[in-house]
Amino acid sequence: MRVLGIETSCDETAVAVYDSEHGLRSHALHSQIALHAPYGGVVPELASRDHVRRINPLIRKALADADLSAAELNAVAYTAGPGLIGALMVGGAVAAGLATALNLPLVAVHHMEAHLLAPMLETPRPTFPFLALLVSGGHTQLVAVEGVGRYAVLGESLDDAVGEAFDKVAKLLGLPYPGGPALAQRAERGKPGRFHFPRPMTERPGLDFSFSGLKTAVLTTLPRDASEQDKADIARAFEESVADTLVIKCERALEQAGFDSLVVAGGVGANLRLRAALQKSAAPSGIRLYFPRREFCTDNAAMIAYAGWARRAEGRAPGPIAVRARWPLSELRVPPVA
Ligand code: KG4
Ligand code: ZN
Fold first, then answer.
1. Given this model, what pLDDT does residue 13 score?
2. Whole-angstrom Cα distance, residue 268 to residue 180?
3. Model pTM?
4. Which domains, ranges and CATH numbers included, belong to the chain?
5. Model confidence band, residue 338 (pLDDT cutoffs 50, 70, 90)
6. At 131, is the secondary structure helix, strand, or coil?
7. What residues flank ion ligand 2 with Cβ within 5 A?
8. Which atom of ligand 1 lies nearest, measured to the CA of 179?
């Protein structure tokens, strides 16, 4: 079975082909970073328009790279939410048009479910059940995953998502969009131990997170005339606080759920300090740790094509395009056929 996946939920236009026999056949992506950079963040209307411009050439490229014709596809999957509604509509409309023209089932994919399943594209791949730490620009969640479609959210951020905290702190430090990678790069030059930020909500029981206070702590610590070294040192301390906080909560959640596998996914999963901290914590306790390759932590269509395949049983004949700006993971149903 060959599934074409289309991702347009935010500022990346991406198309991929997943083949149940041969694995990932191709993945093509266009990042809109340069388009949004002058505005310091994603401008939704510009994002939608750029998706319109890029999507068809990317579909052609993904098919050519996979050495397939459109007639050889068996389903079309697209990100139906959560995300920017106009941006989602572009991918949804193109996917529905393609599915109609080719007479193929159309699969609406939940973006966070796709992030969660992204490590399935790697070797070795995790086996169910596992705990997933989802850390992206819009979500911070700990999810107990029993199987495809069988998710229980154990904890989540009560305010900012961790990626959002990275982006906001980067802005405070005068770093360019996208803030996460820029902050991580700056932190490399930071001296460890010069600043110390709290590990929010780790002192009390529970698995929820809060990152907005951390942003305030950075704001009050940042000297008015901060030097480049001050900023690097603060970036370093911020990153360490986030990594420590996430590690503590993962350890707690693994113990609570009784799982021995941890999957980390979403844009912040590309952060090397977080990856190292999780590795350090997992090794002595025998926890098996799985990450997608770094380019599949951030938004991509490989994970959409894979999730579309995993959810193929829910494919339907193309009809009205269904996209949702907000879509809690808890509202996903178990697919009728595993
Ligand atoms: O998963 P993603 O690409 O999009 C969403 O679904 O939100 O995540 C984007 C988030 C942004 O907040 C970005 O700053 C953050 O992931 N991010 C990082 C890194 N790469 C991306 N944060 C920290 N370190 C990174 N290397
Ligand atoms: Zn994402």
1. 98
2. 7
3. 0.95
4. 2-116+296-331 (3.30.420.40), 128-291 (3.30.420.40)
5. very low
6. strand
7. 136, 299
8. 14
